[in-house]
Amino acid sequence: MRRISKHFERRRKMVNGWEIGRLIGSGAWAEVRHAVKVSPTCITGSSQLQSAVKIIRKKDLTKHEGRSPASEIEIMKRLCHPNTIKLLETHEDELFVYLFLEYCSGGDLFELVAQQGRLDEPTAGEIFCGIVDALLYIHSEGYAHRDLKLENIFLDDRRQVRLGDFGEASSKQHEPFSNLCGSPSYCPPELLARVPYRGEEADVWSLGCVLYTMLTGNMPYPPPEDGNPSSVLREIRTTQLTFPPELSTSVVDLLRRMIEPEVKDRIRLFEVRNHPWLQEHRNNLSHNSSYGSLPSLSSSPSLSSYDDLISPRSENTGDEKEKEEKEAPLSAPTSPVFFRLLAPSVHARGDLEPAQLSQKDG
After folding, report:
1. Quick one: 267 and 133 in the same domain?
2. CA gap 341, 337 in Å, rounded
3. Is the pLDDT assigned to residue 28 strictly greater than 70?
4. Percent composition of the chain: helix, strand, coil (DSSP 3-state, to 5)
5. What is the domain range of residue 114?
6. How confident is the model at residue 27 (pLDDT cuts 50, 70, 90)?
7. Do the domain assignments include residue 347?
8. Which amino acids are annotated catalytic?
């Protein structure tokens, strides 16, 4: 993505009122930069609206079959939940498309687990409640996420969960799915075997892998050294999953039922929400709860309330909705170093391999 970086490093660039700033991260087909937009009504010294802007070169859009920027934009426009990443606006010019996303200064869940080695059950339970609520909402809106992993789960400046990266998301109307997507270490066996699968059931497996990694600091099925997804499938079929003795009986029961190779025996998402372990920790949710010492990811001032600067989204119907959809500019998926939206989904994060998490167990 050096081509994009060179374009923005030559001079300070304004895009639709946003000042595009430092590079946050880059991937196979996009890069993410920090952006700042000041409301005309803001007084001097007041908070500035921050964003993580995905930038994609239009020439590259046809090179990445199966990932549709327009589809991700459409999905994000329809989602509005406290635990999902917010789409602020989109824009395009002659060379690029831009997707301005909510800036999460708390980092991603991968960074938190990597820093702490593993999370205790109360902390993991509080975070997991937000993830489950977000996923239940997404499913209720008719979508499957299909790329759940620690790198796609973020924390805002109040340490509340935000689920992001909808580049692989798809309408459940297209089920059963058959394409291979997401990171192999989080993929269920039916997906790795390339047989038709249902999005909700695949999401539950991935969610179980997320919880297992949060609690143990290890992935249940680490990325294969040969990079071949079939190696993960072989590991699932031949290796019995083990659990550290310090985990409670209740959470082990939940994990076993989520990371269940037989689809017909796998727990459903609503059952996950109602599981005793999750109910036990749901009452602990609080804006003042501490998830431990979070990484310091940015020296920029955090936004106290971007809702004061952006008109709230509302559900449109009829002609109004149709007009909005026609006028919406094409955009593409990307995300910040903290967001990890741009790392190729079939690869594990490169700067800190999941296997390194086990070294922190010590």
Report:
1. yes
2. 8
3. no
4. 40, 15, 45
5. 109-294+352-360
6. low
7. no
8. 147
